[in-house]
Amino acid sequence: MRSFTANRLLLTLMICFGLVSSLGCTGVMSQLLYVIKGHTRPAAFQGLEEKRIAVVCISDASAYGPDPLAYTISNALSLKLAQGLKKESVVIPVPVIEQWIDTNGWDQRDFLALGKGVGANSVVVVDVASYTIHEGSTMFKGKSDLTATVYNIDKEGQVEFHYGPKIFEYPTHGRPAIQTSEREFETVYLGQLVLDLAKQFTPHDHLDTFANDAILNY
After folding, report:
1. Which domains does the chain have, with CATH numbers?
2. What digits encode the pLDDT tens for the residues 149-167?
3. How much is the pTM?
């Protein structure tokens, strides 16, 4: 079974629960705006409600062994879906999926076999074609080329939803490297990437975009 460093697991937790501390005054402002005009928007795809869901992230590196980036995105998105979907929905823990993959020598593409193997009704696949958090030698700017696809395992792997391909960039104008560490920046960037993915599948407040755009402008 794959083992991952404590740092990577900590990164996942920071992505899901640590963004609040990064908001500063922006967080206060967004809360005030929420009181005045908060509004929840439905998910772009609502077909995950009351299902057993497996989340899998793959990248070019996944075929060559343990992929910490893919694991981090899978785990963080799984947690966000578990938080945002109805209580009748079940998100299968990533370690359970990883154990099945390791035991069965999965080929990275047979999502029907994976879904049946872990007892899922739906498999959410995030495919990261490229990933970087650097823009030159003095600037941080996250940029990923990704897609997200939902496979209905009850219908023999039929594609029910497709998002992308999308180039996800954050922040718009980058962040000077002297103002933050690489680890801190990557935590925030991956947090925004996962939030963007999660809102395709869970209800979300339309003011979140305003707050998220300002996180690195404090």
Report:
1. 6-217 (3.40.50.10610)
2. 999 999 999 999 999 999 9
3. 0.79
